[in-house]
Predict the structure.
Amino acid sequence: MSPEATNAALNLGDISVSPPVVLAPMAGITNYPFRALCRRFGAGLFISEMITARPLVEGREKTIRLATFGPDESPRSLQLYGVDPHYVGLAVKRLVSEAGVDHIDLNFGCPVRKVTRKGGGAALPAHPNLLRTIIRAAVDNAGPVPVTIKFRIGINHDITTFLESGAIAEEEGCAAVTLHARTAAQLYDGNARWEAIAELKRSVSIPVIGNGDIWVAEDAVRMLSETGCDGVAIGRGCLGRPWLFRDLAEVLAGRPAPPQPTFGDVADIMVEHASMLVEWFGERLAMRSFRKHSGWYTRGFPGGAALRNRLMRVDSIEGLRTTLVDIDRDQPYPEQAHLIRRGKKGGTQKVVLPEGFLENRMDPTPLDGSAECDVSGG
């Protein structure tokens, strides 16, 4: 595939995403400070943390806070989860009219057991009529705002739903679909099945965004080339590595990836990131939240384990600066650090479903509130 083709814009309604790169929503991570930091490194679409429809409609403060954007954010992209068309429709209407959202992504990929055992998350597409009514409620209430959906291959290798979900999304007016090329049973284990992305692309006419196993910019080029997908979604690969978006912009434009940062560069980015979090959340909450990022930023560097142990006790920006003062700032970025998996742990699972769930797949009845999800993923 030529450089021009890999850098072609991804069009979602009136939104042109160039390069065709999307920051995938991650709970507790893709808040405004992290989105702003990633945007500084490269263009693309940066989706907020997932919020749940019913708590938003009911006005719960925590959910409203998660749906808040920075004053300079454009486009305003948000991921929404819901299991009842009524609440999804009301939530979308509110997001469009009050929050000024420019793009809504519906999440049907969460594989967490406490969600699937109630029929929600990655299990919900196995009930296609319910999936359809939820999507229809969102699209009908979004007006000109583009709606996209994200889903997995299916529940497991015996129960696949991705082609049917893609067809429903296209029929109901979605602007694009994103496929995380794993099943719910796989969680985040093993290799993503990119051939499923290619199969989905061949089956629909709307744009397809591929997700899974993009750790360096060259992976994105390879996914676009091998699957024919229209864009890529980046999740765990950018944890502790927000400059990945800079690398993607360069490589997708046909230029070589820039040199990786030194340890000193990484330390400066860490302080910048933490400072943005403090400004947004306040120092106490921000520095506790930043501890997981500290671990990701320092993975692979010599002496990193001892440094991470100290960083886990840091509770102020000044403490962060002090902890980083003695590092070897000229230390090059570890050559294999990108291969150290970040975020979700490996391992597979047996997907737990409600009793009789698969025997009644055409039932369009909305799920009860206990199937709602408070963790984004998929």
Q: What stands out?
A: The chain has two domains: 3-258, 263-327. Confidence is low (pLDDT under 50) at residues 1-5.
